[in-house]
User: Which sequence fits this backbone?
């Protein structure tokens, strides 16, 4: 069964990083936790599996972070997905700090789909959106 849905991908960098984000340039990422908002309307498990894989061809902005992150975890909006841009609004409401304009949002009007998070903002958005921890199938 192919599941479809949206998700929050949390990535932690244990140390300050400078990462080449392609057309968005070399970007400094202070140590801490970051949240990427994504959707997978043609295979949630395949998309999240790709994010967790360190061995992949770099295709999307997010790939440049996932191959570098020290730790990752994901929470899914399934079986009734919350729209990706609504999740962005929920992250903003939970005090997520926008990181990089244009990151991961080429197909919508959002400013970004990447936010710096603290533990309180992370717990708040997971609870408000009623997200479930992603477990590989």
Assistant:
């Amino acid at each position: 069964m192919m599941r479809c849905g949206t998700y929050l991908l949390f990535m932690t960098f244990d140390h300050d990083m400078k990462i080449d984000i392609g057309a968005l340039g070399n970007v400094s990422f202070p140590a801490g936790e970051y949240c990427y908002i994504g959707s997978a309307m043609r295979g949630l498990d395949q998309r999240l599996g790709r994010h967790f894989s360190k061995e992949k061809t770099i295709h999307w902005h997010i790939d440049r972070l996932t191959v570098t992150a020290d730790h990752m975890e994901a929470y899914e909006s399934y079986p009734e997905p919350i729209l990706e841009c609504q999740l962005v609004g929920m992250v903003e409401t939970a005090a997520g700090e926008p990181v990089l304009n244009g990151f991961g949002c080429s197909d919508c009007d959002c400013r970004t789909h990447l936010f710096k998070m603290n533990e309180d903002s992370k717990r708040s958005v997971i609870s408000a959106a009623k997200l479930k921890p992603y477990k590989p199938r």
In short: The chain has one domain: 5-133. The longest helix spans residues 119-129. The chain has a mean pLDDT of 93.
